[in-house]
Amino acid sequence: MTQDRNEIVARVTAALEGEAKPVAIRGARKVDARGEQSGYWVVSDARGVIVGTGAATADGSGEEAFEHACRTVGIDPASRSGEVIDAAGRILTPGYVDIHAHGAWEKSFDDGPDGIDVARAGHAVHGTTRQVLSLITNPMDVICRNIRTVREKMATRPDILGCHLEGPFLALKRKGAHDPNCLKDPVPELVDRMLDASGADPAAGKIGCIRQITIAPELEHGIGAIKQFAAAGVVPAVGHCDADYATAQAGFDAGAGIMTHMFNAMNGLHHREPGPIPAAVEDPRVTIELINDGFHVQNPMVKLGFGLAPHRIAFVTDAMAATDCPDGAYKLGELDVNVIDGHARLVSNGAIAGSTLTLEVAVQRAVNELGFSPVAAVEAATLTPARAFGFDRVNPVTGTPLGLVAPGYAADLNLLDPTDWTAQHVWCAGRQVK
Fold first, then answer.
1. Is 63 annotated as a binding residue?
2. pTM, two decimal places
3. For the segment 389-406, what is each residue's pLDDT rounded down to a tens digit?
4. Is residue 265 marked as binding?
5. Annotated catalytic sites, by residue?
């Protein structure tokens, strides 16, 4: 990693481990799941919570409300010292929420505390203010060690929402880039080990740091494990599976609330063998992940998939360590990966090995290439993934809700270039990371 990136990692980590500060932004084009509005302003307090929003008005009342909100948080609205940020028409969105990503900047979230710092910085500077850290299939003791590391990191910074276990309870036939030697059936004893590592205590009503776990429901103990995890406050996900329609339905009825990267690592749509996708699409309880990179899912299928379940499609990256890095040789756990033209494949068999996508690019593609409405594109990267875990309301993990630019929500904010939608300034819970 270059010296510049080392400096960025140090700065981002210090900001996220530091205290929130009041933020005041005016003159923005706000885009969130509730719609678009020009001349928008937002003010947040020293807790990192939005206390006021509004827009410019012809009678000047909007300006008066902005100035009042500034004063309530100790900001002088007339200050020329940079306390008040003039967005000058730039796009204001909620911070992006990625619920399925493995790393960036040559590090993965399995690489210990320092690896987490590096990979999180790599996504934070591209507008991903909150992230569920995806851990790959490994021997069980390694998985549990990595779960404990995430649990410890959560205690020191607000941007880490917990972990997603993508394995080891996957179908061998649909394993993708996961190590087949480490795949297992989710017997209750293994589930208990994972929950114990996460700090969960179901009997006491205490949830741990595991937010999500991908499970193939057709495994012998698959449905039982989904019930066991769901009872402990985890949101199981159906994925990396070869399940038929009825088995997928049973998984969702047992408590699975997510489909892991729809179309990828699962049996596809067939007119006489519907498979798991229709089961997810028709169930309003299910959030459906989609990798919008044009490679994992080509553009016609992205458009089709996005239209199948309005307001329930969550853009995810499935990003690996090579994200935002040059082409070359990388690792996915113990497996060798080649990245060519930004596309990662296993050396051993050519299987796709995660992506090099950021949510910044996923939203850019949706708006500028695929013609999605800005509101729908932003919703898929903000409110929808937050809602999958109940983070769109007051909750025990984030406290303050995520996913909208609105009073009472976290001051997770992106200011984007209005032409190409590149993140220029980024705040997480009132902490400026870019």
1. no
2. 0.96
3. 999 999 999 999 999 999
4. yes
5. 318
